Amino acid sequence: MIIFPAIDIRGGKCVRLEEGRFDRETVFAENPLEAARKWVEAGTEWLHIVDLDGARAGEPVNLAVVSEIAKTFDVKIQLGGGIRTMETAAAVLSAGIHRVILGSVAARSPELVRQICIQYGDRVVIGIDSRDGIVAVDGWEKSGLIQAGELALQMKEVGATRIIYTDISRDGMLSGVNVEATLQLAQYSGLAVIASGGVKGAEDVLALRPLEAKGIEGVIIGKALYTGAISLPEALSIARGGPC
Fold first, then answer.
1. How far apart are CA 229 and CA 190, in angstroms?
2. Among this protein's residues, is 132 annotated catalytic?
3. Looking at 51, 129, 167, 171, which residue is catalytic?
4. pTM for this predicted structure
């Protein structure tokens, strides 16, 4: 199972939000490169980066700093936030980013997602973020008017192979991953799923690890790493089958 340390960028800084709310922000690093350095030196092979400014603006705002991270460190990056056109996806992937995350555009323009998937295959991952099972878009500030499971099936139909599922009510709250809903989505859609939102410690990684065979291929960890509730080496060890 893959561990994805999260780096959320807003105003040029590494931050974490609670429940996706921009008015409930904590700054954890003044420079996202330093956050990246910490996780790379601790052994990660992947980074999950979200351009929060881009999610609200509708186009990437912090691509330059993410590209600098990609050039500086030997690490794979998946990036989301404001990627809503073929041209933007192409620009991101040509900037050294390994995967683009399509969120709002997935709910609004399935045919565009189809074209991006045709062009870039498994370098595309779909971000499905929901409140009470209903997809949220535009930086989680609006409803996408579709259930998470139905969107997952639409995305499978247009060629997507993996999704990131975030329970917004748990994101940044250290309240535990919604394991049940994540597993249900994996089984319902038949897609590979990356769990996101609410990791509070080793117990969440331990709960998810046996579910890899059922379609949960990884977990994104944010606040729990930044607060020390779990260390990255511990999370990596558990994910690789080692002891807690």
1. 32
2. no
3. 129
4. 0.92
